Protein 1
Amino acid sequence: GFWGRHARCWRIGKNKVIHSWLHAKRGRYYRKREARRLWNYRIGAAAAEHDIAYSRFMGAIRKDNIALNRKMLADLALNEPYTFREIAQHSKQGCVKYFIPPSHYYIHKNY
């Protein structure tokens, strides 16, 4: 609940509730945005472990019609690394098959 005059006065309380609804709606959009960003980070990190860039990985996935969304790919990268490795190998072969040129940067591992 509210405290102070917002809790006791109808006019001020009504405006406060409407304002809080706007914040709640904005928060729902932010939550979805942050979840998608986290999925992208996880997929990119897992793809980098298999020496393929995120954009090349996702491009090969789309061209091969692999019907996995980002949420499922991030879950596979986190919980099923062997399955993700097979998908990464398949996408590497897809990059060669569809002549996707390498990006302008390379992934360097720090040993």
Note: DSSP finds five helices and no strands in the chain.
Protein 2
Amino acid sequence: LSRRCLGTTAAQLRLREEPIFHGLQGRLAGQAAINGNRLAHHRVAVLGSHGLDFAATFRAVRRAGAVAAPVDARLYDAEELTALLAEAQVHLAVLADNTAADTAGEAMRRLGKQLTFSE
């Protein structure tokens, strides 16, 4: 019999979260300098399908001191996603996986905001 592990350990999540967190620190510090040093008020969209990378990215955003706005971008076209992210007033979006890279890229381009990848 083949057994498939359905759970994720905290250690596995931490291994994925750590490099994302360090990458976000620099980006958010740069944004804070531009926006008058208001790091605590940064809103970062976490885009992708829900899974290990999404959870690690979400945790990294929260750990970096920003407000995380989790969005399964596969559910929206570019116009809908643009409206959703505009309403959430996100400063930055992090793509946790490539499931909706084109749609996310187009939405952030329309908003004039930065899109980065978690890897």
Note: The first strand starts at residue 43 and ends at 47.
Protein 3
Amino acid sequence: SMRNQLQHDMGCWGSSLQRINAAAQQREANCSHYAKSTGKIEVEKQAQEDRKLEREERHQQRRMELHFARRDIGRARQQQRVVQELEQQVAQKERQKGMKRFQQDLERQQVLQATRTAMESDFIQLHKKRAE
């Protein structure tokens, strides 16, 4: 009887062990199926999110490059305007100097002409006095 009981218990444990092994195999199959389906979906979602972040990063980088390019163009324009303004100021100074020189030359010619006229007049008067 004890032997029968022991054999019966051994059979039950064997059956339990088979059920446990079957459940473990089923669990492994489930985990594998999860990894292949849901896990794959999660990996794909992560890859999609990574691609989205990369796109956004490239877009932001292009925006920054465009901003810096526009800023550089604006600086170049401003610099060009400053150079043009300075060139105009230099040209204006040169015109003023030219006008001043022209005016001085004109005054010098007038003084020379007046001196020449006065000398000629004095010479004519002196000549008239000697002739008398």
Note: The helical segments are 2-36, 38-131.
Protein 4
Amino acid sequence: VRPQAPDMGKTACPAWASTRLEEEDSSPSPDRTDAAEVLRRLNEEREALELERAAVKEAQDTREIELLEREAHLHNMQRDLEGQQTALHESRKHLALDQARCIALLERTTPRGGGRSSPESFALCQGSPALQHRLGGGDV
């Protein structure tokens, strides 16, 4: 069995010791003041970093939206250009077919004797859209 220490409550403490403990509790020590100041500065820096992070995120989101809009615009332009390219290809194809028809007609109507034909002997193909356009017959 252990001997127990006598209960030395507040009454057992000398008066000068209790006064000194109360002074330490009421006035902050330099270590506590420094720690509180460091903690306050850390909180301020953390808040500043959070604000900066939010601003950077907002700028990044704005930039991503702009890039997506540009990408959509480029896709639309590419689609339009491909449509124009297809239309030009079809137009060239029709013009080449008309030219081939006219050349074939000229070969059939040109004398084969090896002699040169006069300009009056050449005729444009009657069904040619180019001829109709030149004669004022409408669009190609």
Note: The longest helix spans residues 30-109.
